[in-house]
From TrEMBL:
Species of origin: Mycena alexandri
Record InterPro entries: LRR_dom_sf (IPR032675)
Domain of life: Eukaryota
SUPFAM superfamilies given in the database record: RNI-like
Designated name of the protein: F-box domain-containing protein
Region entry Disordered, spans: 1-56
Amino acid sequence: MEQAASDSNDGGLGDNLMFLEMEEAANTSDNDNSLPDLMPPSPIDGSEDPETVPPLPGAMDMVPAELWLHIFLEICTEALAEDATFLQHLDAREVIRLVHPRFASIIDAAPEFWTNFHVSCSTPPDYVERHVATAGNCQLDVIVMFDPDLLYRLNFLSPNDEDEDDVADDRELSDLVADAVACLQMILPTVPNWKRATIWCTTDSFLLAVLNAFARVPAPNLEYLLFACPPAVGSRRKCDSLLINPPNIFNGDLPALRQLRLYSASLPWGDGNYFGRLTYLDIQSLSRLAWPSVEDFIAAISASPVLEVLVLTGGGVKFEPGALLPSFVIQSLTTLKLVYTPDSKWAMWVLAQGSFPSLINLTCIDFDNLAWSYTEELGLLSGIRDLTISGPVNGVDHIPALLRHLPAIVTLDISDVPGFYLASLLADPLQCPTLRGLRLGREDLTALTTYVVLRSVDPRNALEWIEYDHGLLYPLSHFSYTMFATLARRIPFFDSRPEFRV
């Protein structure tokens, strides 16, 4: 007992001594203004100004610049794809630059960030100047879009001003044109580096400024050009007066031009400098004042020996009824897309005089009976393998006659055509003996009409697959999938092909 008590007293005394030593050490540390050894040394030793000492690395600085560069490129690419108006005061690059100083330094030091830029009525000149200085010798994708009416509607108009005849008064428009001219002068040195260009003007003032700026500047590396002069929204100003005589742009020095799109605009028709090396030509909505003559139109579409795709959407040619039309051949053309409008009937008639030995893809949109009659006269349609049809009901009677001219058709993509009409086509195994694939639009097909179409497929047909609504076999929302599956099980077409069984 005594031994135990003695041990207990010794233990308590030892604990008290340890506590006193720790307290004394703490008091000494406080008096010496020193930190425990476990703490990192302070960067400030009293001899340096705290404001001049660099801060410890933060989270932004610890991430490698290469990783930030990859992230920023993805963000800018996605933002560019989603930018439909081309009118933003701050694009993705500018927003990223404002987030953190290091972000700004990374973007400013990477020329690949500046390969895409827009110049519009709202673009600050200092932004254009910095962009030109940073881009260096990189190949550029440039959008020059001057649409003052759209700008005013987006930024300056009140709801009560929407019915005004003139959106911008002359003084404000002149100020915008002056700013545009200043921006155009800044980007002129970069034109030799342009790879893709979109030029969009809706008024005579801006179009004249663009033509004056780019008239004598060569673009040796330009591969894609979209030249658009649509009528301005909410304004009576148009560019027709400047398009009566096709303007010269980039001095006609475009040796690399391969894709040309004209939207309500024109260039010197048949000029080999513009049309002589094209692989893709898209002519849309030509103003009547800009219509080419028959000779110029044929010269334009047949100038290039490597033209593969021709798209004609609206617009026409100056044609005198009774005049003789010359025949022509486009050997390399593989894809022809025609969107019919009342103004394009003469252009369709001119195309009917041509011959296209390599044509394999034909798209016909919004055709009426007259357009179908022209199409049936297109030369050498026997090689067509893929046919796309979308149009009004009053033109479907000509589809069988067209199909008879297509003995090699393999794929038929059809929409906006009544289901009963499709059923009558597929019920005849001799109508399309080589047809292998059928794509059906879902806009006008319910589960019942789809069933009628599929049920009508003759087993003797060579049809191998049917794609309904981008590959999905299901009805509209008010029909259940179970109902459609039940119908599909009763269709001999599915029973004979295991890959289509439900």
